[in-house]
Amino acid sequence: MLHDPNRVYVFDTTLRDGEQVPGCQLTTPEKIEIAKELELLGVDIIEAGFPVSSPGDFQSVVEISKAVKEPTVCALTRANKGDIDAAVASLQYAKRPRIHTGIGSSDMHIKHKFNSTREEILERAVEAVKYAKKSVEDIEFYAEDAGRADVVYLAQMVEAVIAAGATVVNIPDTNGYCLPDQYGAKIKFLKENVKNIDKAIISVHCHNDLGLATANSIAGLQNGARQIEGTINGIGERAGNTSIEEVVMILKTHQTLGLHTNIDSKKFYELSQMIRTQMRMPVQPNKAIVGANAFAHSSGIHQDGFLKMRENYEIIRPEDVGFPSATIVLTARSGRHALKFHLERLGYTLDKEELAFVYNNFLTLADSKLDINDQDLQGLMAHRLVKN
Ligand code: KIV
Ligand code: ZN
Predict the structure, then answer these.
(1) Shortest-distance Cα residue to atom 8 of ligand 1
(2) What H or E segment, with its residue span, contains residue 107?
């Protein structure tokens, strides 16, 4: 079968990078439940854990491998034999196993984390890939802190690990440092200067320390990467990882990018709620795509425009991400049009004069309350009937 050059593979690391967040730890049954939902969502790869880190994580990778059929199941390792042996053992039941091994690639990490040299680190990277390849065919290599790495050295490392058998090369912006054009240029450089790059897929793995994870991931895709790594709700270390729902909806909304995934976006909202509950990590109300306010229109100008034609203020339909529906929130900033819309929804039809009278009372009430609910509206209408 011919490889589709415009297909973007989605690598979910909610259960690994996401689960590293303090307070977000999950039990194995909870991880299995989430993994099954990720399979239904259509992710291509599930990073199920870091098996050497604890017996519980090891067992989770074993059980997830048994529970899912379609996605590749991936286990994280550092570049050493002990980690790789544990990962191989944990993946024994996986239909499509992948080992994700790697090492630091920036001078900062080489000197101050490994107290080593570029040459030695390159050797360790190649050894790890070769060792993992003896047991598992699909090997992803991560060049940790690639965002801050010297691009020529990075290219050398990428070329060497592909020659050693890596099928995917992950270029993480581990510290969320890069600007989108810098990150995009890095991917472009690898695409143009690594001579065996066509033998592997370039993956983007961005962190959100400067709020640029999604923008950087898109820049990577625009410059030739074809795998994106992220989490649901963008959870992850510090400021989090790239939010999968954001990247997928950007690709859907901007068809001119010419890229597509296998994701069923209608499942996003439900899965987001599930992750929020199980991981005890609230979703900020203004979070793109899945936040409580993502489809809530509250100012009079927007409400009026939205009620005339939803596309005036909506670039994504709520139903496309499984969101219950768009909402017109009634506050002191709402106009007559929004009030009329809600009153009609409750079965009241008012002429212009009546609406003006109720609207005045509504404004007085709305100034003293955060938002107005159906009961408040019914109260306003009862008051109008008494006056008449
Ligand atoms: O952010 C990072 O560099 C990682 C690697 C382990 C892939 O999570
Ligand atoms: Zn990460």
Answers:
(1) 17
(2) helix 107-112
Domain ranges of the chain: 9-278, 296-387
SS3 state of residue 98: strand
Using a 6 Å CB cutoff, which residues line ligand 1? 17, 142, 144, 170, 172, 174, 205, 207
What do you get for the CA distance between the two ends of the chain, in Å? 75
Q: What is the pLDDT of residues 316-344, one digit of tens each?
A: 999 999 999 999 999 999 999 999 999 99
CATH class entry, domain 9-278: alpha beta
For residue 206, the CA-to-ligand 1 centroid distance in Å is 8
Query: Taking the mean position of all CA atoms in its chain, how far away is CA 96?
Result: 22
pTM of the complete model: 0.95
Residue 198: which region, alpha, beta or left (left: phi > 0; alpha: psi -120 to 50)? alpha
Q: How many CB atoms lie within 10 A of CB 387?
A: 10
Tokens of 120: 């030695």
| Structure tokens given for 309 | 């034609």
